[in-house]
Specification:
By secondary structure, the chain is α+β, with helices and mostly antiparallel strands. It has seven helices and 17 strands. The longest helix has 21 residues.
């Protein structure tokens, strides 16, 4: 049975650590690979990324597999969350062996952050190593194939899409080949997910699942968004993050190609995208359980198309799962509150 989430890729687990109240509106999400790691790659297209260990994922470099990927709030400060994940992995001997003792490992933990500083009211309330540890412990404690909480959780807690509340979304599919492809997204962009003339989500236009809001509802939504925009500080830096996972056997170069084409899924659901004030980053994890058809030189194409489609679907889910926020750091209506589910 599948749950239409990143955890449909066997062995992949997801954990969130969420902080709200008393000035907090942030969190961390950890994607934990099966023990032994997964082939990993990354493609960064935003002009203002905040990342850690992404150079290690270059196909030309040494590291072949990683044990976890960290997505976090807190801008560059929040990258400290990866230290908590590294410590948890080291305690279990999971990482790159660097000595004769099995305990001599260096866990390579790629990480990327979204900007949510001050959205709960306290600029200094941001994830740290303890937050990362809580998220990886939540991932490890989850059952195989468990549903993944969506909306304002983990790294999506303080996420904002334009003037709408953003969050975490996820989706999966099984290709005709039997290969599973899945995506998890933290939707937090300078651009908008909503077509301005109608109120339809861009991602749903692409999917052909258009639910046109009543024009009066749309006009009322525009008024509420304008009121919120007057109250909120302009978003100085934002980012959409994604992890695309598959059980296919991929090289690092193939995984990097999958990360690159998955960015198309962001462009279909958010406009504009990849700006200087965005840090848009997509990671790929490939567990290697199912080989590609070696007789077909284009066998990767099915994964490339699916990855982009799933990122679009995950962004739509993030927007629809988000709940409104009205607090000391600002007010961000949710799409559901403005237009209905």
């Amino acid at each position: 049975m599948t749950v239409d989430a990143l955890t449909d890729v066997a062995g992949v687990r997801v954990g969130h650590a969420t902080r709200t109240g008393d000035g907090w509106l942030t969190g961390t999400t950890v994607v934990l690979a099966p023990e032994g790691g997964a082939v990993a790659a990354v493609d960064v297209r935003g002009g203002g990324p905040g990342t850690k260990e992404t150079d290690a994922l270059d196909p030309r470099n040494l590291v072949q597999k990683v044990e976890a990927v960290v997505l976090t709030g807190g801008s560059a400060y929040g990258l400290d969350a990866a230290s908590g994940v590294m410590a948890w992995l080291e305690e279990r001997g999971r990482g790159v062996r660097v000595g004769p003792d099995p305990a001599h490992v260096v866990p390579v933990v790629p990480a990327a952050c979204v900007f949510d500083l001050g959205r709960g009211g306290d600029f200094r309330a941001r994830p740290d190593a303890a937050t990362g540890r809580a998220a990886v412990e939540a991932a490890a404690a989850s059952a195989p194939g468990a549903p993944v909480p969506q909306g304002c959780v983990g790294a999506g807690t303080g996420a904002v899409l334009g003037q709408l509340k953003g969050g975490v979304g996820t989706a999966s599919t099984v290709l005709d080949s039997g290969i599973t492809v899945a995506a998890l997204v933290v939707a937090n962009a300078v651009g908008s997910a909503v077509e301005p003339e109608t109120g339809v989500l861009y991602g749903e236009l692409f999917q052909g699942r258009v639910r046109h809001p009543d024009p009066e509802v749309h006009q009322a939504a525009l008024r509420r968004l304008a009121e919120a925009a007057e109250r909120n500080a302009p978003p100085p830096l934002n980012t959409t993050l994604a992890v695309v996972a598959t059980d296919a056997l991929l090289s690092k170069a193939q995984a990097q190609k999958l990360a690159g084409t998955a960015h198309d899924g962001i462009a279909r659901a958010v406009r504009p995208v990849h700006l200087l004030s965005d840090g848009d980053t997509v990671f790929t994890l490939a567990t290697g359980a199912r080989p590609l058809d070696t007789a077909d030189p284009l066998a990767l194409n099915g994964l490339l198309a699916a990855g982009a489609d799933l990122v679009t679907r995950a962004i739509v889910r993030a927007v629809r799962a988000a709940e409104p926020v009205d607090g000391p750091g600002g007010a961000w209506p949710s799409y559901g509150a403005l237009y209905g589910r």
